[in-house]
């Protein structure tokens, strides 16, 4: 429908984790699932030495392809985030957003382990995902998780921020930064903040013209609102020890 920012905590959370991860000149950056390139634009503006956008999809002639065109040292890699094919220690920063939530615990750990492998010692791993608020009881979280999975048709398994941190630590990382934000992916104020007025109007127009998409989006928004007392967005930055 033309939405470019599909992040649980919006660009606000993206900027927070990147401020904490401090991408800069000389970095060798891997981004898992770069989508249409909104985060890639920020990462490339830091003038890294290398940038790899890893996506299981073929991004030929895509918005992401247009983001990196003419950028020395920037390339797209068609691969699964569990097995990128990149060399050990190739990166100094790995960024992944809105992808781990949709994985099983085993899948989450596999992607985290791959990030650990491709990072050089001292490298940083920044993630931005959906979470449960700290006070949420297990039964409430299970109900919210079931609602999400049924509505978006993909298994969604958010974690409390402490559990995200524990999982990162289980594959060897040391967590150095955590943050949370309101889960407001489809709220009007967040959409305008992320997409701008013109982007918001474009999305509204596209949704109005597509009844099937409108029905699904409204169902997703209703699910998010019904579970807003349980859900949040989380951001963490972890480091591979030297």
Automatic annotation (TrEMBL):
Record key words, sorted: Methyltransferase, Transferase
Organism: Ancrocorticia populi
Signal peptide (residue range): none
Domain called Methyltransferase type: residue spans: 31-127
Record-linked CDD domains: AdoMet_MTases
Gene Ontology process terms (BP): methylation
One GO MF term attached to the UniProt entry: S-adenosylmethionine-dependent methyltransferase activity
Protein name as annotated: SAM-dependent methyltransferase
Pfam families per record: Methyltransf_11
């Amino acid at each position: 429908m033309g939405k470019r920012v599909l992040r649980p905590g919006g660009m606000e959370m993206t900027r927070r984790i990147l401020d904490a991860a401090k991408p800069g000149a000389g970095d060798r950056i891997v981004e898992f699932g770069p989508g249409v390139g909104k985060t890639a634009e920020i990462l490339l503006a830091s003038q890294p030495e290398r940038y790899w956008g890893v996506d299981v999809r073929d991004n030929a002639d895509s918005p992401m392809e247009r983001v990196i065109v003419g950028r020395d040292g920037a390339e797209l890699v068609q691969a699964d985030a569990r097995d990128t094919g990149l060399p050990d220690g190739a990166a100094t920063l790995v960024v992944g957003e809105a992808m781990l939530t949709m994985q099983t615990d085993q899948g989450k750990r596999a992607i985290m382990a791959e990030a650990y492998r491709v990072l050089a010692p001292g490298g940083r791993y920044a993630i931005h995902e959906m979470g449960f608020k700290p006070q949420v009881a297990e039964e409430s979280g299970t109900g919210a998780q079931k609602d999400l999975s049924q509505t978006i048709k993909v298994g969604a398994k958010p974690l409390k921020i402490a559990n995200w941190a524990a999982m990162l630590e289980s594959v060897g990382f040391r967590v150095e930064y955590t943050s949370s934000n309101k889960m407001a992916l489809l709220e009007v104020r967040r959409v305008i903040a992320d997409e701008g007025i013109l982007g918001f109007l474009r999305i509204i127009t596209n949704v109005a013209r597509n009844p099937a998409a409108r029905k699904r989006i409204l169902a997703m928004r209703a699910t998010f609102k019904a579970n807003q007392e349980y859900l949040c967005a989380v951001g963490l930055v972890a480091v591979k020890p030297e």
